[in-house]
Amino acid sequence: MSPAPSAPPRRLGFLGPAGTFTESALRRLPGADAAARVPFASVDAALDAVRSGEVDAAVVPIENSVEGGVSATLDALAAGHPLVVVGEVLVPVAFVLAARPGTRLEDVRRVGSHPHALAQCRGWISRHLPGAATAPSASTAAAAHALTAGGAAYDAVLCAAVAAEGAGLHVLADGVADNASAVTRFVLVAPPGPPPAPTGADKTTLVAYLAQNHAGALLELLEQFATRGIDLTRIESRPVGTELGEYCFSIDCEGHVHDLRVGEALMGLKRVCRQLRYLGSYPRADGLAPSPPPGTADADFTAAHDWLTRVRSGATT
Questions:
Q1: Which segments within 156-229 are labelled E, that is strand?
Q2: What burial letters (b/e) apply to 52-87, b meaning 16+ CB within 10 Å?
Q3: pTM for the full predicted model
Q4: How far apart are CA 15 and CA 31, in angstroms?
Q5: Which of 141, 159, 255, 299 is deepest in the core (most CB within 10 A)?
């Protein structure tokens, strides 16, 4: 769990309704108990509320260990008025299959939930509900509340146990998942400002647009990290939306913007990319410090800079 910003937000938005895994992530943030929690129906709505000042920051899902990046969050951060990530939280994810009272497992013909939840339980559904169809929802908790309200196009939902209880649903099966170690990563997003101070175990998030779509263009981008010994913890291509075949790259890398090697990598990217959007540096939730290859630690960059300064001043080496 990463620390919250130095001044805890007074109003925290999250992907709602109450009972989502996103709310669970929010509750793990230091200072969250003292903040007003404001649910939103979608990732876009939560982030737009940060942009407008309706809330001071928002918690949204960004990555799942089974399904990868959350497209809605990646795309919303890549476009619109800039926002920055100031913290992250990792939440182990376990689902229950819930339905209205009186529904039996054999009655379930269609299962509703967030697309990532459905993907994480695809094998379980195939084994225990052969032939059952699936229906996507904005969130796991939204699926549960829609089923309670009636009119939902499904017979059961995959959601957190707390969401099932809050919606008055009956649990047909618990511990539903294909991977018991599945984890979802959530980020705390705020308006632009100075990043949290470096901790020695940080991440930096950015979006890079290739200058030209030519052979070796992606290699030029990746070399900016490789030559400085910076590990990428996530890289995904996302369509720009202008025409088929045009993509940008959403990237998480180890290190902080104030680290010399990360700063040099960002300058290198700025030279070779058509556009570079910096989305923040923040403490890693797992607390893992990087192990730079020989010659790529900040001390090595400082020593090299000092050497060049002496050379430029006329000193012999």
A1: 156-159, 170-176, 183-190, 202-210
A2: eeebbbbbbbbbbebbebbbbbbbbbbeeeebbbbb
A3: 0.85
A4: 18
A5: 159
pLDDT digits (tens, 9 = 90+) for 40-88: 999 999 999 999 999 999 999 999 988 889 999 999 999 999 999 999 9
Average pLDDT, the chain: 90
Beta bridge partners of 176: 95
Q: Does the domain formed by 95-176 have CATH 3.40.190.10?
A: yes
Tokens 């938005």, residue? 13
Domain-wise residue ranges, the chain: 7-93+182-193, 95-176, 194-312
Pair of tokens at residue 269: 């990217």
Half-sphere exposure of 24 (CA within 13 A, CB side): 19
Phi, psi (degrees; rounded to nearest 5) at 153: -90, 35
pLDDT digits (tens, 9 = 90+) for 160-215: 998 999 999 999 999 898 887 889 999 999 999 999 999 999 999 999 998 877 77
